[in-house]
Structure formats: C-alpha cells, structure tokens
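User: I would dearly like some help making sense of a protein record. I have put the entry right below:
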Amino acid sequence: MIVDCHTHIFPDEVKKNREAFCLRDRGFSSVYKNPKARLVGAEELIASMDEAGIEQSVICGFPWEEKELCALHNQYLIDSASRYPHRLIVFILLLFSDPEWSAMELDRRIKNGAKGVGEIAFYDREMTAQDIESMRPIFQEMENQKIPILLHANEHLGHSYPGKGGTPLEVFYQFALTFPSLPILLAHWGGGLPFYELMPEVKKAMANVYYDTAASPFLYSKRIYRIVSEIVGAEKIIFGSDFPLVRPPRYFQELEESGLSIEDRKKILGLNFLKVLQPG
C-alpha cells in the first residue's frame, strides 16, 4: 500500500483567481505568481493517484498569512476528504501569529476528521524561537494526542527556487528538543538534518523526527535514499511527492534504483507513515 504524505490541493476560487490571491498574500505570490506553477484540486490529485497506484495521500493547503484564508483552505480539505474518505488524509493549516485562533481551529478540525497539521512553512521570513514559544500550548496538546506536524525545511546551499525558505536548521533541532514526543515530519529531507544524526546527541533528540522525500529529484542524487537510510534507518524516511510539483512515478524509479531492499522500499512508500499516523 503506497501512501503519499505530502501533496497540495487548492479550492476553485484560488485556482481561478490566482492573481488576486497573490496580491493578498506575499508568501503565496513568492511560490505561485508564475502561472506555470500548477494549482490543482482534489479530483486532479485522485486521478494522479489512480494512475500511479497510490492508495492514500495527505492533502495540505498553503500557509496563508490570514486566518480567514487558512479557514477557507481547511474547510476545502475537510470537504475533499469527505468526498474521498478512504483516499485523502487531512493535514490542516494553523496560524503562528494567532495562537488563540489556532487552538480553536485545531480542536474543531480534529473533530472534523483531520489527522495532522501542515505543511507549515515560512517563505517570506524565518521561523523563530518566539514563533514556537507562542504556540507552545498547542504543540503540547498535539504532543499529548500524538498529532503529527509537517514542517517545511530546505537546504541552504545550492540553487535558488520559489519557496526556498531561510529558517536555520538549528530552529528545527530546537523544536524537536522542546517537544520530544511530538511526531515531526520534516519536508524535503529535512534540509539536510539527517546528516547531523551522525552526532549521538542529535540522533537522540530526533527520535520522533521523520524525513519526507518531497522534491527529491530536484534537489539530490538518488543516492540519498541509501545514504540517509544508512544514517537514520529506512524507518525514518517517508515518501512525499509534493504533488503537483513532481509526479510520483519519478520517485518510484529513483527508489527502485537506490539499491534498497524491497522491505525498506515498502517502509518508505507507506508503512512508516501509517505507523506515525497510528502509533502503537
């Protein structure tokens, strides 16, 4: 069973009025002002899943700067999952600048069937220790309930591209230290954080941190699957496509050519994420 832990879908009003939403949100504009940057809905995602043989996908929205837009997108995710209840898994958006609203939204959406939070990203500034501290009660509650969070992390070297954030890796490390029992998914191979797990104290701190493969073909050689598996274990790698940015078959080919065993590939393609979603 293949599970994609990282996809993005958008309501029709966003798809049809891209320019208006670009004017309304700086982060959205930085990623999607180019009309070639694809915006898809639930039906297009389902069609891609059927074509690629993917059983379930996590659907994420966009980390808007306004709570009204976050709520709009969250509702679309919930509605989409209600149409495809056995195929789509909802991760909702929270707003770090409004912890009070975020606490109520988390409670409401979990009751609506959401399973996690994310993808949380900071595109026009860095995520800071102050951001994390302001959300501490929410993350503690998520930790108690074992509600996973997907955070956007990226490498700081190499080529530039839309959506390349500037949050230092130390912030994600501190996040893991502060909430040691919270299931944390770091997108895009954690921006290189797996390599620091060669340090014993980092490995200990990252016990509940997992790394998704989103955008891997654009960022790393296919050798990364074997190398990261040797460092952290295949159990901590989770398949995420970042669809529609990259189509899933490209990942399948790279994973097949990685040299990993069939058992490890099965873990990466679904078993690991299902364990995160259903601990114990």
The two ends are 19 Å apart (CA to CA). The chain has one domain: 3-277. DSSP finds 14 helices and eight strands in the chain.
